[in-house]
Amino acid sequence: MADELRPGQSVELLKELHILTRDGKLNQDSRRKLKQVYHLVQFIEPLLEQVLADKPDVQLVDHGAGKSYLGFILYDLFFKARQSESPGSRIYGIETREELVRKSEELAQRLDFPGMAFEHLSVADAITSPRLPARVDVVTALHACNTATDDAIHFALKKQARFIVLVPCCQAEVASVLKKNKAQSLARDPLTEIWRHPVHTREFGSQLTNVLRCLQLEAHGYQVTVTELVGWEHSMKNELIVASYRDLPRKRPSERLRGVLQSLGIEELGERFFTEAAEASA
């Protein structure tokens, strides 16, 4: 079992997160969980290193944190070893379920993880909350359901995040708008056949949602990469979107975003997938 853990990794934490059994063993299910977490961490650690290369601390906000698996593992593997040289670094777990916030606070205190904070807030409230920094470096949102991922993107844009890491989940809003406007679209464009059947509406709507998110991020100057998460074979929700702010040209992705919305007859979603120009004029 020791060969499968990172050097210095807290066995007590892994037991608390139910990745290890109470006697410190790994079963098949926990091996898969550990593989998933390590795969996510390997994407995020280089981003944290980039931040620390330019400033003395890093501020990471995890939206829809749940039990804060990712935050605790990141703190244990990355932040803990840098406490003395980067005491101002923080991980903030944002969660709407108060009992999970309370349990995470208790666990962080028990493990002596002083750089972790947990807030019982919605994403909208988190944008204006004085308990969070005015600017953050990294925003994560893993399996934030439906529009919660878009709310996390909104938060990241408002906080001028340098990096955004998203694993979207169960997107329904775009599919519902496609369904509502289907009859009108069918009369206008034969490509509507792509999502005419309900199961195709759901599948196409899910993919389209992430396409729109990527265009939106690019329209705010981000470089976007999309890949799959290794070890998430049991779940269809295994798409990983990583956005890095590069101050790239905004005009083309903004035009493409508006063009896609117009072509598919879903212009009403323009407010959710807003571009920098639309935000400035609001």
List the helices and strands and how they pair.
Blueprint: H1 11-16, H2 28-54, E1 59-63, H3 69-79, E2 90-95, H4 98-111, E3 116-120, H5 123-128, E4 138-145, H6 148-158, E5 163-169, H7 173-180, H8 182-188, H9 198-218, E6 222-228, E7 239-245, H10 251-263, H11 276-281
Parallel strand pairs: 1-2, 1-4, 2-3, 4-5
Antiparallel strand pairs: 5-7, 6-7
Index terms:
single chain, 282 residues, alpha/beta, 7-stranded mixed sheet, 46% helix, globular
Overview of this protein structure:
With 282 residues, the protein is α/β, with parallel strands linked by helices. Helices cover 46% and strands 16% of the residues. A seven-stranded mixed beta sheet has the order 3-2-1-4-5-7-6, sandwiched between helices. Helix 2 packs across helix 3 (69-79), helix 7 packs across helix 9 (198-218) and helix 9 (198-218) packs antiparallel against helix 10. The longest helix is centred in the N-terminal third of the chain and has 27 residues, at 28-54. The model has no long low-confidence stretch (mean pLDDT 89).
